[in-house]
TrEMBL record:
This is DUF2147 domain-containing protein. Residues 23-137 form the DUF2147 domain. The lineage of its organism: Bacteria, Pseudomonadati, Bacteroidota, Flavobacteriia, Flavobacteriales. Pfam families: DUF2147 (PF09917). Gene3D superfamilies: 2.40.128.520. It comes from Winogradskyella litorisediminis. InterPro entries: DUF2147 (IPR019223).
Amino acid sequence: MKKFCFIILVLSFIQLEAQSLVGKWKTIDDETGKEKSIVNIYKKGDKYYGDIVELINPSKPNPKCDVCRGEMKGKSVLGMTIINDMELEEDEYSSGTILNPSNGKVYKCQLKFEDNPNELRVRGYIAFFYKTQYWKRVN
């Protein structure tokens, strides 16, 4: 019985590790279906953050977020932290925000694995309106 419980515990741990949010993710535009960037998601304390570490075919070299507000206005999109303060709550990451550098807006955010641990559903909310993208894990 102890062996069986240990095996279940190990398999559960492997399942959690396989669905780790930490790592690099390729963003896919929900309107065009084109790859846009690589975001590195990392854990700091009990929260998760994501920085743009690569731009895929940018329209101009080293684009700035001219439409952003506050301290983000005019900052380079490359290196920008776009995911902030996400927390694991049951089977999804929420309670944080995501910035869209294309329009400068900050949305409430929900990150969730569906059936595939290499595909992340990224949903940004304003009130009850939302947009969804599916990001692919980069190995």
